[in-house]
Amino acid sequence: MNFKKIHHIAIICSNYTKSKDFYVNKLGLDIKQEIYREERDSYKLDLTLNGEYIIELFSFPDAPTRPSYPEAQGLRHLAFEVEDIEGSVKELNQKGIETEEIRLDPYTHKSFTFFEDPDGLPLEIYEI
Known about the structure:
By secondary structure, the chain is of the alpha/beta class. It has 2 domains: 1-64, Roll (2,3-Dihydroxybiphenyl 1,2-Dioxygenase, domain 1), CATH 3.10.180.10; 65-128, 2,3-Dihydroxybiphenyl 1,2-Dioxygenase, domain 1 (Roll). Helix content is 16%, strand content 38%. The chain is built from 2 helices and 8 strands, in the order βαββββαβββ. It has helices at residues 16-26, 85-94, and strands at residues 9-13, 30-37, 42-49, 52-59, 78-82, 103-104, 111-116, 122-127. The strands form 2 sheets. It has a 4-stranded mixed beta sheet, covered by helices on one side. A 4-stranded mixed beta sheet has the order 5-8-7-6, covered by helices on one side. The protein is globular, with a radius of gyration of 15 Å. The two termini are 29 Å apart. The mean pLDDT is 91.
């Protein structure tokens, strides 16, 4: 294997309109492309961060739910780098997004905290 980088992360949401608003208007990701696939009654939204393609947001009718919390099996969380964690937490809170208390990583001595997307997917901000 000669992996270069992670190409994207795919997320299936329960409410496309709500999740699109969350990732675009609250977190500030940019839309690269939005496609409605009539044969599947499904949307696919390609999102970028600083020009880099990172998330595919999907909607599927009647998609089953999955346990989603940081210690559940499977994907643990999706983390975003920030330079000012306190300012980022304040901005998230002003947008109605609740965050956990800021913690300190005992190994890297960097600050981080968690919050959730509209479907409860754990998201992290990590101060660099």
